């Protein structure tokens, strides 16, 4: 252990971390060949011993790694489409990409996952990070761009025009003649979830249809969360003739529940989702949905982050992309007399 008052050396860090001095050197200099867990272990020893206060460490902390991070809860169709856009945007840019994901999106220990990952990545492994649908606000020593921010977030972000998209979805159902339209909402902390619910309410109100609170169920974008909610809506004697779900994953589960109950699709029930994930096009019937161009969400987020890292960004700190209604076979006019 170093003497009291003596400068902390790389050898001190190596002893504290239980690794070789050469490994510490590779970590400090940002070189390849060191596992992420070892890097985190060495960085922890550096911080504990105060080695970061040295001029060498300070200068290295300010240097670029030319690596960007993408932090997400887990990989589903939505995230995979976003990643395609990120990779396209980074093509030939000189930046590499590290991806961090939780093993399970919906366990209770997920709370704060994004901050934990950012703390590990920022300034040591990456020059900046894209965070997909976080659970809360974040702090980072390097630039961060969020795809679908939480409500009230001030972090640079890219999102879809969720209000317009949801409004068009419900207007489509109203135009087919539906008046009892159920809604399965998304995770309440996300701005997108609130905007989609606002669009649902706005379209009904504009058409002179009273908003029935009993037809609004609150999910969390987890597809499985929609199963009991779909049963709650469809098991009632005055069931809705249509359901708008705030994500395609939840909408596809609504289709599953409707089939289990013996309902004809779309004769007895019309269903609309939001996202336009590939699975929706191959469902039976094909899912009517709102396309929010997940590929472009990723592309624009990576473009913004690159420019923030290099100091070249001169645009707005918030990008909102247009949405488009995609009509498929899961929607039709309601039956004049519902089946028993």
Structure description:
The structure is a single chain. With 340 residues, the protein is an alpha/beta fold. It has 12 helices and 12 strands. Helix 1 packs across helix 3. 44% of the residues are buried.
Summary, kept brief:
With 340 residues, the chain is an alpha/beta fold. Helices cover 39% and strands 15% of the residues.
Alpha-carbon distance between the two ends: 79 Å
The number of distinct β-strands equals: 12
Report the principal-axis shape.
elongated
Order of helices and strands: HHHHEHEHEEEHEHEHEHEHEHEE
Strand order of the largest sheet: 2-1-3-4-5-11
C-alpha Rg (nearest Å): 24 Å
Q: What percent strand?
A: 5-15%
Find the structural class using helix and strand composition: alpha/beta
- The oligomeric state of the chains shown is single chain
The overall pLDDT average reads 87
Assign a percent range to the helix content. Answer: 25-40%
Number of helices: 12
Residue stretches low in confidence (pLDDT < 50, at least 5 long) are 1-5, 52-62, 105-109
* Main beta sheet strand tally, sense and closure: 6 strands, parallel
What labels describe this entry?
340 residues, alpha/beta, four-stranded parallel sheet, 15% strand, disordered N terminus
Layout of secondary structure:
Elements: H1 10-17, H2 21-28, H3 36-49, H4 55-61, E1 67-72, H5 77-90, E2 96-101, H6 113-121, E3 128-132, E4 144-147, E5 157-160, H7 162-175, E6 181-185, H8 191-206, E7 216-218, H9 226-234, E8 242-245, H10 248-260, E9 270-272, H11 278-282, E10 289-291, H12 294-310, E11 318-321, E12 324-326
Parallel strand pairs: 1-2, 1-3, 3-4, 4-5, 5-11, 6-7, 6-8, 8-9
Antiparallel strand pairs: 10-12
